[in-house]
Amino acid sequence: MHNKRSNILPVLTLALCISGCTLAKVDVNVVSERTSLENQVLGTYNSLSEDMLLVASVRGVSPTGKIDAPPRHTPEQADATRAMETIAFHADDIEIFKRFGWVGENQEGLLTPFTRETTKVASEELKSFAANYSDAEFQQVVKEVNQAREVLMMRVVQTNENFTAKDLPAIRKVFAKINRQNSAPGSKVQEVDGKWQTL
């Protein structure tokens, strides 16, 4: 079990710099009121982030000049790495979707799509973005991000000896809370009572 109190941001930022992706601002506030479950989920998630960093930073040639074989990873590790890459790849678009009110963070740790209204888009640059993003592309991005989040939540269960499949609903709540906390003002979020509000 990992009980790290470090932020997710430094590890993901370094991994994404290595892979050439960008990551929207992610702040995970460390507060004394965090529950034991939240600490365990974040610790396990940080381990997944470190695994991704190790995969991204593996050298192909040893110091003696010999070509090293890439390390073997389980299919679950590979799936988790791809999931993190997918989330990072779409992070900027998701932030814009949130700004437009096209998606919100639900209480299950996933994105909920809403009606795409382009009339509320203010800047010309964002109007161009909104006009060029088809409904099918929008739906595909939301689907890919939600699938990636599902993979990561399941991976937290698989890699922490204290969790079983029965803990998945509670883990979803932790992810939902973190997603709500990391949402920018103007984002739609679903509260624990099921009601939607705009931050």
Explain what the structure shows:
- Strands 2-1-3-4 form a four-stranded mixed beta sheet.
- It is an alpha+beta fold.
- It has helices at residues 8-19, 36-56, 75-100, 124-132, 135-159, 168-181; strands spanning 103-105, 111-113, 188-190, 196-198.
- The protein has six helices and four strands, in the order αααββαααββ.
- A hairpin with a 5-residue loop joins strand 1 and strand 2 (111-113).
- Helices cover 54% and strands 6% of the residues.
- It has one domain (8-59, 71-198).
Alpha plus pi helix count = 6
Strands of the largest sheet, in order across it?
A: 2-1-3-4
Radius of gyration: 18 Å
The share of residues in extended strands comes to: 5-15%
In whole angstroms, the N-to-C terminal distance is 34 Å
The overall strand count is 4
Overall mean pLDDT: 75
Summing up helix and strand content along with how strands pair, one would put the structural category as alpha+beta
Low-pLDDT residue spans: 1-33
The sequence of SSEs as H and E is HHHEEHHHEE
**Main pleated sheet:** 4 strands, mixed
Number of domains: 1
- Give the helix level as a range of percent: 40-55%
How is the secondary structure organized here?
Blueprint: H1 8-19, H2 36-56, H3 75-100, E1 103-105, E2 111-113, H4 124-132, H5 135-159, H6 168-181, E3 188-190, E4 196-198
Parallel strand pairs: 1-3
Antiparallel strand pairs: 1-2, 3-4
Helix pairs in contact: 1-2, 2-3, 2-5, 3-5, 5-6
